[in-house]
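Hey Z.,

So I finally got round to the MIG thing we talked about over coffee. Here's the setup:
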Amino acid sequence: MITNTELEYKGDLYPTKIVSFEHEVDSVFFHTDNSVILKVTVLRDSLIRFRFTTKGYFSNDFSYAIDKSHSHGYNFLEVSEVEDYYQIKTSKVQCRIQKIDMRLSIFDLEDHLILEDELGFHWEESYEYGGNIVKMSKSSKDGECFYGLGDKATQLNLKGKRLENFATDQYAFQKDQEPLYKVVPFYIGLHNKKTYGIFFDNTFRTYFDFCHERRNVSSYWAEGGEMNYYFIYGPQMQDVVTTFTDLTGKPELPPLWALGYHQCKWSYYPESNLKEVAAKFRELKIPCDALYLDIDYMEGFRCFTWNKEYFPDPKRMVAELAEDGFKTVVIIDPGIKIDKEYSIYKEALEKDYFCKRADGPYMKGKVWPGECNFPDYTNPAVREWWAGLFKELVSDIGVKGVWNDMNEPAVMEVPNKTFPMDVRHDYDGNPCSHRKAHNIYGTQMARATYHGVKRFAYPKRPFVITRSAYAGAQRYSSSWTGDNVASWEHLWVANIQVQRMSISGMGFTGSDIGGFAEQPSGELYARWIQLGVFHPFCRTHSSGDHGNQEPWAFDEEVIDITRKFVSLRYQLLPYLYTMFWQYIEEAIPMLKPLVYYDQEDIQTHYRNDEFIFGNQILVCPILEPNSLGRRMYIPRGHWYNYWTNQEVKGGKEIWVDTKFDQIPLFVKSGSIIPKYPIQQYVGELEFDELTLDVYYKSGKEKSVVYEDAQDGYDYKKGRYSFLSFQIIGKEKELIIQVHKEGKYDTNYSKYKINFIGLPFKVKNIEIDNEKILFDKRTFENGNYLIIDKEFTELHIIGE
Ligand code: MIG
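And the result:
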């Protein structure tokens, strides 16, 4: 393990003087005296790749993280040479490479310095493994802030921290504990109101230091592989995040039910127990779409088998649950039990699909089933085989989703908790040791699982969830934050982790609501549900060791709060689905930390708790017991308190009163928030109205609503409905214009429009320039209108 740094270590090597350069299409190569080559590739005007070798030639270029279909192409590229440096200029940035030492600096077009090398690229040769320990240091500006990096359980702003990326099964991890389950070597820097991003695409163990060791230096390094990183220019954080997300890929739409509420425990068994849980949800009218089977459904923890004593007829059970609206999700781990009677083990052995040690024997490790071998998911043939294994589960039994756990990979009873580093991997034809494949193993397992579930679920959409992930895993899977703890501190951690994942490209994430280890009080559980319904993935899970964590394990008040907030999530499904659509279509993160929302306002730079859910709803969890409210920062602009409809002007910290059955929630003025009726599961009800909550604003504001068949792939053929609303508010007028796109005709025929914050009494209402009859008295009582959805302009005129 490398903990020494360039300062302490004397064996560092540096590029010497640049002696030649070549320009080939989108790339420029710089050669030094000492065999270093820097290849600079302009992918987009604001996306530049820097790749170094110290050998005098480049090895095969291969990445699991980069999405092959990412957008590329630039408007402008000019390479020039001046006395001291070379310059590469695009329509967004100018990058200078110093001749004397290959150090880089990047400026915007107005010559503002965005990022500059301190020592720049340097390396240390690895005697033990061959190759290099590759290092980079950048100088950091005063007041610079850092964000990103996946699932780190620490303050959102990473300034002052040193972090380690090595996928680890970290049971009951603590705040600030390192490393965790996921590896996203991508960070965002912000200074002088300008944002840039760095994606260090290296799957070896990596480290990032943000002014921890030295006040004005940020650095990153890896235990092997190449210094290979992407620079992304903002200047807005939105530009950086969407470019990174586009580069590493976006998921397809999940089935809408996957955005419903999920209930999990380690473990529900036998069948009667699972059925009781299902029945109780319906009896208590707490909406729920998915139930999970943890490892005990299997026969001796053998993947793809069933314990027939607990689950005598899985197909019938899954079908019966489905009749009541429940989808069944089952866990599948990577460890395959060494058992010569077990067909999957036999087949993998025959086909030579298990990972091997350097000297030949199969990698053997203990996990739940006892001694296991582990498929090498970095081999495409193994992935194809693995995908095929889902046929029975998905096609025959009717399972709707698969949960991949332990894929860091985790191994029990060994000090490093994972494979020995000499284990060999195919790495898609680039054979390597576990040092290089470790961080990507979980993603490749999730990828194989995804392809299997997708194949057999077709024409329905697949659902996969994974614990470990490397950048880009979002193309295949959702994720959860692993084995957290039922504590108030962990509620804080969950809030930050899910925000951070969101700006790290991996938005479809949630925490184990209530905490996995230990038992939450009713109050903590309620507070966690109140936050969890605003996370893209919403599931209660617990280890089951300390009692139950279904809503009814707590008192009436907590049950009522759970029902209230889960119901609110179901009402907001069209809003949630729309933000998912913006994520897959435009790479926009579903949750936005305040700094993302308004980077120009320095008040946002160190905020952790408040975030924007979608584009228009401000959420702030209650993170302490016995709270009657809390202080929070309201970002600039005008907002309405969701509970009281009171208007507040942002740009300041305020105290917000909340009862136990509330958390601070604010809606941006001018928003149109779409709502469905409360359903016990997605698709339960047919309804004839889409509710639109219209929050008056003086001025203009746009809102959009994406809908489709809620499952299947017809949306890819244009069968979706995309509504864009524009509101124009004046002193005594409100105009709502609607524009429709897409070939999907939604089932409802009307809108129920609720008006919030109208500053005037309504005199007349016109639809497409025709006055309509309306009953003033009922309007004033309810402030709503039910009208046919086929209109293009609604005009509310005040007295
Ligand atoms: O070693 O499958 O994070 O969600 O319930 C524990 C049992 C294995 C860890 C997962 C957790 C799951 C549990 N698993």
